[in-house]
Amino acid sequence: xxxxxxxxxxxxxxxxxxxxxxxxxxxxxxxxxxxxxxxxxxxxxxxxxxxxxxxxxxxxxxxxxxxxxxxxxxxxxxxxxxxxxxxxxxxxxxxxxxxxxxxxxxxxxxxxxxxxxxxxxxxxxxxxxxxxxxxxxxxxxxxxxxxxxxxxxxxxxxxxxxxxxxxxxxxxxxxxxxxxxxxxxxxxxxxxxxxxxxxxxxxxxxxxxxxxxxxxxxxxxxxxxxxxxxxxxxxxxxxxxxxxxxxxxxxxxxxxxxxxxxxxxxxxxxxxxxxxxxxxxxxxxxxxxxxxxxxxxxxxxxxxxxxx
Length: 308
Fold this sequence. Notes:
Layout: H1 11-26, H2 29-36, H3 40-54, E1 59-61, E2 66-68, H4 70-95, E3 102-108, H5 110-117, H6 121-127, E4 131-137, E5 151-155, E6 163-167, E7 174-178, H7 180-186, E8 201-203, E9 214-218, E10 221-225, E11 231-233, H8 236-244, E12 250-253, H9 254-263, E13 267-269, E14 280-285, H10 292-307
Parallel strand pairs: 3-4, 3-5, 8-11
Antiparallel strand pairs: 1-2, 5-14, 6-14, 7-12, 7-13, 9-10
């Protein structure tokens, strides 16, 4: 009686399956290549080699889109949970280490980096020298989990419902601001609707075609205003600096404009219409087995908020 050999996977098999899982999940070779740290051509060759070894097409590829074949969908349904189990097993093994280690990838709005991450960098590295923080500053609200990040800092209004969200600070406000020279020249708006007759500095969410509509609220009544003016940018800091130069009225988070207001280079406008909204949160997917490194980062970044 002959014994049946147990199925085994080579390192090449695992690498190809991992590459397939990322492409199939993102449905984009360019995004998957960025996530895996390889070129799109190398990734395409890897997928081609996998399809050749299996003798079946897994992906339908055109110049504009990537879709799964039926066989590809079936393979993804088995590979994705299997790779997740492997990741959990590795995380559990690392959990046995006395000192957390590894790379933690964080995506954050720029203003939140300055407020929450920069002040903790030195002390966090001293406490956890084997953890590498890989921080990407991006004001674009995208699916950070699909992009391979472990956590992100977002304002409460744009956090997906299926994420765990840990508050990092108090509610925020947005303020309309202008320089004393602009107000002397054009006057100050009395209500948000008056902005239609003013030069407003537009801000555009990264990845969006149209500028952001300014949001106000008073006595429970919300109002959105579509503004126009001589300048549009996808950087809040640049918009605020343009306002400080007298170009027009800008609209930004209070923490960003506070130094300018304190220095007298900007004056707050329409404050009675600037209602608070949920502030910054650290958000991450619910996990059966969180890595010790991510747990250490979460505890460290929320410590000031807990103390306050």
